[in-house]
Specification:
Blueprint (H helix, E strand, L loop, with lengths): L14 E2 L4 H10 L4 E6 L2 E7 H4 L20 E2 L4 H11 L3 E5 L5 E6 H10 L1 H4 L3 E8 L5 H10 L3 E10 L3 E10 L2 H10 L3 E7 L2 H17 L2
Parallel strand pairs: 1-2, 4-5
Antiparallel strand pairs: 2-3, 5-6, 7-9, 7-10, 8-9
Helix pairs in contact: 3-4, 4-8
């Protein structure tokens, strides 16, 4: 499978902090990004929002509005689920990417990440979905993996799908293994089984949302 870092783009140069607001307003008039990264001497200092820049003085420079920049970003070492979380938490269609030395290397576009998402085995491969629930203080990803694998199951993927201060829900997709034995083992370890389906509506919903993003971004 393709590495997510292959989707890092540099089709457009980052905005320089010394660029005029007028130039950036022109950029957003032509390209419909929600945000775009700003650099100062090649160092990422934040992202400027398209819906805010309309109110800025076009004669000023980007640096004059440094206090408005939003400082979200992804790392080159992040897995795709963590990258999706950055998109979701910041209500954006573009996320700057930094390497381990905090150097700006490019950006992810939502459409490209949704394409990557569609290609993951979690969506493409047939399997069973199990959603388990346990107290936040008591659950363990390694324990969940061990439960599946000790019953000769194979995980296609898992992620935290819901959480509050007391409980956490984890969604798993399993493509091989005796599902009943796996479920009974989870119960012996005090996990509550929230749902269990074969190719259930949850996966179909993920696919539909991904397809929607692709259509939306191509309008």
């Amino acid at each position: 499978m393709t590495e997510i870092t292959n989707y890092i783009s540099n089709d457009f140069k980052a905005i320089d902090s010394q660029d005029t607001i007028a130039a950036v307003q022109g950029f957003f008039d032509e390209f419909t990004f929600s945000h775009f990264p700003v650099v100062e001497k090649e160092i990422y200092i934040g992202s400027i929002a398209s819906d805010e820049i309309e109110t800025f003085d076009s004669a000023k420079k980007v640096i004059d509005y440094r206090y408005t920049l939003e400082r979200f970003f992804a790392r080159t070492t992040m897995v795709w689920l963590d990258v999706l979380e950055v998109f979701a938490k910041n209500n954006t269609d573009l996320v700057p990417v930094l390497n381990e030395d905090n150097k700006y290397v490019g950006y992810y576009e939502l459409g490209a990440i949704m394409k990557f998402f569609n290609e993951t085995p979690f969506l493409r491969e047939p399997g069973r979905i199990i959603v388990v629930k346990k107290r936040v203080m008591d659950y363990s990803i390694s324990q969940i993996t061990q439960i599946v694998e000790s019953n000769n199951g194979k995980l296609l993927g898992l992620f935290v799908s819901s959480a509050d201060i007391e409980n956490i829900e984890v969604t798993l997709k399993i493509n091989v293994g005796p599902i009943n034995e796996i479920i009974q083992t989870f119960r012996r370890y005090d996990y509550e089984i929230i749902s269990e389906h074969q190719e259930d509506n949850y996966i179909n919903t993920l696919k539909e949302r991904s397809d929607y993003f692709d259509k939306y971004l191509n309008i």
